[in-house]
Design brief:
The structure holds three protein chains of three kinds.
Chain A (H helix, E strand, L loop, with lengths): L8 H12 L5 E5 L2 H22 L4 E5 L11 E4 L5 E4 L7 H9 L8 E5 L1 E3 L5 E3 L14 H4 L17 H6 L4 H9 L2 H11 L11 H10 L6 E6 L8 H8 L1 H15 L3 E6 L4 H16 L15 E6 L9 H8 L25 E5 H13 L1 H5 L9 E8 L5 E6 L4 H8 L9 E6 L5 E4 L9 H6 L8 E6 L4 H15 L5 H18 L5 H17 L3 H5 L2 H9 L1 H7 L3
Helix pairs in contact in A: 6-10, 6-13, 7-8, 7-10, 9-10, 9-11, 10-13, 17-18, 18-19, 19-21
Chain B lengths: L2 H9 L7 H13 L4 H11 L3 H10 L11 E6 L2 H5 L2 H12 L12 E3 L5 E6 L11 E3 L2 E3 L7 H6 L7
Parallel strand pairs in B: 1-3
Antiparallel strand pairs in B: 1-4, 2-3, 4-5
Chain C lengths: L3 H5 L6 E6 L2 E6 L4 H7 L23 E6 L2 E6 L10 E3 L3 H17 L4 H9 L26 H9 L6 E3 L6 E3 L14 H5 L7 E4 L2 E4 L5 E7 L6 E4 H8 L4 H7 L4 H18 L12
Classes of the chains: A alpha/beta, B alpha+beta, C alpha+beta.
The structure holds flavin mononucleotide, iron/sulfur cluster and FE2/S2 (inorganic) cluster (FES) (2 copies).
């Protein structure tokens, strides 16, 4: 018989807690892509050698990334009864010293970034670690963390992403159980609607509404898809969400599939993220073993499977119709809508399909667990909840930042990011990747939400914030993005295919000091035309970097053109 | 790629969703490129027109129709890396490897040294933007790369100053 | 829109009134607005529309302004469906401004195409500010505008799948795999017939059809058993004949259209004199 093992959550929860708070010291090395590449891999291997030689008095494990990427590699130390201590910038050569200290019930203070006496995993579980180590700063006193609010990243950097028990121990899959066993699908949709959650993939479409439309669409075969193409260069929050807490995404999709009435979910994941692919494959396999995927989940009549589809390097495949074409084995050339994905005839294999971004799905479990009203109180009225941003470029504290929507750019760039790197002056930020715009520092009191970013000519996009300093040439930045968009254009429609190419040629000419005032006019006209006449979002938004730099940094263009 | 390996790869895809890209991706990963005979075999086995497969391979930047060298070096040209000096890193690599900037016919940047030891490519973003600029060699990521640190990194892959 | 939908079942399509540049016209509900507007004589330029294919919306020349609840937006007429009271304008200053830039882009992309030059000139655009694409050994003679009609006809209508788009973005071209002769090509020539800029070169000579633009592929032509003329690609006639039932198929195999018409007429006369007809043609599957 199929007989999916009914998920024994309490047993797994207990096992997970024993792993998070073992009766012996626990050392967890931050091994998301950034931590591993910064030397975390070597650190981990060194721990294996040294601890292995001394017996099993210390538990060695992996964890994800807490977001303070500048301070990688990081190592979490948990000594029973003591606070969790995060060590930063750990080198393989430090490992011996760390192990010696831990065996003596201590931590090396000079490597400590902060201590965490207790951690609220938001969905009802608070892990109490203990007191002591008072010389080490508290987590909330570290400036990079003090302005943040962790909802989506609540587990990242604390639990082992390769172990489903630890996710369950911090409240994981409880929301899925509630939804499937106690709620009607319509009630689940209503809860998401009440939360005000808007799509985190860029356009901010109300998620509950999209679910409702797909649920109501005719036909009993439907798909849900997770957009994990994360195409904006300089944006990597989705990568971390998948690498540090893959089960949160899976749980969100289970709940969504139940609400919408889909039996199959797909994750369209870019090939550039091999670790995210491995961790999700593992997580899916674990969820299946626990009966959380497959047939008759939680003993209900609901069956659901998730499959990973890998992309092959095409930014345009983040666009919904191109993404569908890509999964179906065709080139990612968008087609005019309607039909929309949610319509019959418009989705995957012509079935109604709901497409949501990774972070959108990740927001779902906490909404079901804590309620839509709870969620709606975070952020602002029309922009509820938190958003994860990747704060990168020429900023002092690079990393992943989660703040309530409506937080100002000033807070993000100066309070959290500490301004320019190496003490340089910040000039602008670029949000929304190739589809976004450059916002000058004088507009940094802009609250970061969907509408306000549009008002200043940019977009939210998936959440990349790239900081530019006084040394950055804004014309070069515009050229950079146009070059990117030209290379990623699918080539179907003429304004984007040809228009962007000629925009690039003009910008090259201007950068070479050969441009004229007339070229600037042509540049503006071309950008306007591409924006108004392109077929899909790639072309419609690709002129934004040009239009915003022309609007805010015209003098930099002026300095380059011949009078 | 021999027929049995290809059959093996094909047999692992039991759903039409993501099948073609998945199979082509595995061929690319195994061989370092997509050989023409593999494309032709695939076309016959799956009853998919060769023109469709050729369209896919030339559309997606992950695929290459040209064999690559022993080591593949990929420079991230994402935004974070760009503002932190990726252009200089790429130029330094071209110089160290003795590669001339070639005009491309298909929009893909991939150049292999004459001795076939190294292939230089560019990528959009590895999602490791915090340690920009980033270079990947044979799947290993290197962060905070500068023209000065490159010779040391390349040394791990048998590169010697000539 | 398939034939089934256009009332073969007997239900007439509902007629609606749409307003084109202030003029009221009738259209079938759901009809493609471009098609209705062209029938009414509106001057909307278009390159990628073909009634028998799905809406594609690539050339962007057919953009019109739609008034909806007092708000206006620009959309392509070839992807717009007629609804009661729909109001469009085809020549607002905005439309003209953007369309002119698009024409300039086309003049730069297909500098050798007389069709494009004439079309642009009709709308007042005679020169381009943009650098012209020069490619001396382009098998499409510098005239391709990537409207995709050839690719779509080859794939969706003929089912041959001999040609497709290669590369992406500004590097996109239409071609066969590896730009070589492709045995999937049945030589039907539908691509060349449908190409709006006459970019595709095909030549019949010495009993063969040579696909100059498609890697020089050659397809044998069938020779008429009566008059001896080469009349159509062998593969294509075989495919067509396969749809007929044996007696007629055997009668008509190997005949050119002229001789075939004569043979059918002779047969008709013979049958009518005998008073009754055999059904030679297999009814179409519906
Ligand atoms: C050119 C282009 C690229 C896009 N890339 C992405 C992407 O990488 N990830 C993503 O989630 N959405 C991307 N989108 C937006 C998606 O099309 C879609 O709106 C989104 O995935 C819907 O999910 P949401 O409602 O949860 O935001 C892109 C859109 C365009 C036009
Ligand atoms: S706007 Fe660009 S990416 Fe979108 S369909 Fe047109 S050519 Fe393709
Ligand atoms: S921009 Fe280079 S890794 Fe993201
Ligand atoms: S005819 Fe409408 S876009 Fe080409």
């Amino acid at each position: 018989m199929t007989g999916a093992a009914e998920a024994d959550l309490p047993a797994r929860e207990a096992a997970g807690l024993r792993k998070l708070k073992p009766d012996r010291p626990r050392i967890a090395v931050g091994l998301a892509t950034c931590g591993a590449a910064m030397g975390g891999d070597r650190v981990y291997r060194r721990f294996q050698e040294i601890i292995g030689a001394g017996g099993d008095d210390i538990m060695l494990t992996k964890t994800g990334c807490i977001g303070y990427c500048r301070e990688e590699p990081q190592v979490n130390i948990t000594i029973p009864g003591r606070p969790l201590v995060i060590l930063h910038r750990v080198d393989a050569d430090d490992v011996e010293e760390i192990v010696t200290a831990v065996r003596a019930g201590e931590v090396p203070y000079e490597m400590a970034l902060c201590r965490v006496p207790s951690w609220d995993h938001v969905t009802g579980t608070t892990v109490e670690y203990g007191g002591g180590f008072d010389r080490i700063p508290l987590y909330q006193d570290v400036r990079f963390f003090s302005h943040q609010k962790k909802v989506v990243l609540r587990n990242a950097g604390f639990i082992n992403p390769e172990d489903i028990d630890e996710y369950i121990a911090v409240g994981g899959y409880a929301a899925a159980k509630t939804a499937l066993t106690e709620m009607e699908p319509d009630a689940v949709v209503a809860e998401v609607e009440r939360s005000g959650l808007r799509g985190r993939g860029g356009a901010g479409f109300p998620t509950g509404l999209k679910w409702r439309i797909t649920r109501k669409a005719p036909g009993d075969e439907k798909y849900i898809i997770c957009n994990a193409d994360e195409g904006d260069p300089g944006a990597y929050m989705n990568r971390n969400e998948m690498e540090s807490d893959p089960h949160m995404l899976i749980e969100g999709m289970i709940i969504g599939a139940y609400a919408i009435g889909a039996r199959e979910g797909l994750i369209y994941l870019r090939a550039e993220y091999p670790l995210a692919i491995r961790r999700l494959e593992l997580a899916i396999a674990q969820a299946r073993t626990c009966g959380l995927l497959g047939e008759r989940i939680f003993g209900t009549g609901f069956d659901f499977e998730i499959r990973i589809v890998t992309g092959a390097g095409a930014f345009v495949c983040g666009e919904s119709t191109a993404l569908i074409a890509s999964i179906e084995g065709r080139t990612g050339r968008p087609h005019p809508r309607p039909p929309r994905l949610t319509d019959i005839g418009g989705g995957l294999w012509k079935k109604p399909t709901d497409l949501n971004n990774v972070e959108t799905w990740c927001n779902v479990p906490v909404i079901i667990q804590n309620g839509g009203d709870w969620y709606a109180r975070i952020g602002t009225e029309k922009n509820t909840g938190t958003k994860v941003f990747s704060l990168v470029g020429k900023v002092d504290r690079v990393g992943l930042v989660e703040v309530p929507l409506g937080t100002s750019l000033n807070t993000i760039v100066f309070d959290i990011g500490n301004g320019g790197s190496q003490g340089k002056k910040v000039k602008a930020v670029q949000t929304g990747g190739p589809s976004g715009g450059c916002i000058p520092v004088r507009l940094f009191d802009t609250p970061v939400d969907y509408e306000n970013l549009n008002r200043v000519g940019s977009i939210m996009g998936s959440g990349g914030i790239v900081v530019m300093d006084e040394e950055t040439n804004m014309v070069d930045i515009a050229r950079y993005f146009v070059n990117f968009a030209t290379g990623e254009s699918c080539g179907k429609c003429v304004p984007c295919r040809e228009g962007l190419k000629h925009t690039l040629l003009l910008l090259n000419k201007i950068m070479a000091g050969k441009g004229t005032e007339k070229d600037l006019d042509t540049l503006g006209l071309l950008a306007d035309t591409i924006q108004k006449t392109s077929l899909c979002g790639l072309g419609q938004l690709a002129p934004n970097p040009v239009l915003t730099t022309l609007a805010y940094f015209r003098e930099e263009y002026g300095a380059l053109v011949k009078k | 790629m021999d027929e049995k390996t290809l059959d093996d790869v094909i047999s692992r895809y039991d759903s039409p969703s993501g099948r073609l890209l998945g199979i082509l991706g595995e061929i690319q990963n195994r061989e370092g490129y997509v050989p023409r005979d593999a494309l032709e075999m695939l076309s016959a086995k799956l009853d998919v027109r060769l023109s469709q497969l050729y369209g896919l391979v030339t559309f997606y930047s992950f695929f290459s129709l040209k064999p690559v060298g022993d080591h593949v070096i990929t420079v991230c040209m994402g935004t974070a890396c760009h503002v932190r000096g990726a252009v200089e890193v790429l130029a330094a690599l071209e110089q160290l490897l003795g590669i001339e900037d070639e005009a491309t016919q298909d929009g893909k940047f991939s150049v292999t040294t004459e001795d076939n030891r190294f292939t230089l490519e560019i990528a959009r973003c590895f999602g490791a933007c915090s340690m920009a600029p980033v270079v990947e060699i044979d799947g290993n990521l290197y962060g905070y790369v500068t023209p000065e640190t490159l010779p040391g990194i390349l040394g791990n892959y048998g590169w010697r100053e000539s | 829109m398939t034939h089934e939908e256009i009332g073969l079942s007997g239900t007439p399509k509902k007629s609606v009134t749409i307003v084109i540049d202030g003029r009221k016209c009738r259209a079938d509900e759901g009809e493609i607005v471009l098609s209705a507007a062209l029938r009414e004589g509106a001057a909307i330029p278009h390159l990628c529309y073909e009634a028998s294919l799905d809406p594609y919306g690539a050339c962007r020349l057919c953009m019109v302004e739609v008034c909806h609840n007092g708000k206006t937006s620009m959309v392509t007429a070839c992807t717009l469906h007629a609804t009661e009271g729909l109001e469009i304008r085809t020549d607002t200053p905005e439309i003209v401004k953007y369309r002119n830039v698009l024409f300039e882009l086309y003049l730069a992309e297909a500098p050798k195409s007389d069709v494009i030059k004439e079309m642009a000139a009709r709308y007042g655009v005679t020169r381009t500010r943009f650098l012209k694409k020069i490619d001396t050994d382009d098998p499409l003679g510098g005239s391709c505008v990537l409207c995709g009609l050839c690719v779509r006809v080859c794939n969706e209508i003929m089912g041959a799948g001999a040609i497709g788009f290669v590369n992406r973005g500004p590097y996109t071209v239409v071609g066969t795999p590896f730009f070589e002769a492709n045995t999937d090509c049945i030589g039907c020539g539908a691509c060349a017939n449908v190409c709006p800029t006459h970019a595709i070169r095909i030549e019949d000579r010495d009993g063969e059809r040579v696909m100059h633009s498609w890697g020089g592929g050659r397809v044998r032509l069938a020779q008429c058993g009566v008059c001896g003329k080469y009349y159509a690609p062998g593969a294509l006639t075989a495919a067509t004949l396969a749809r007929l039932l044996p007696p007629l198929r055997d009668d008509l195999a190997g005949l050119c259209p002229a001789c075939r018409a004569k043979r059918i007429a002779d047969e008709e006369i013979r049958v009518n004199m005998r008073g009754g007809a055999d059904h030679h043609v297999r009814p179409r599957r519906s």
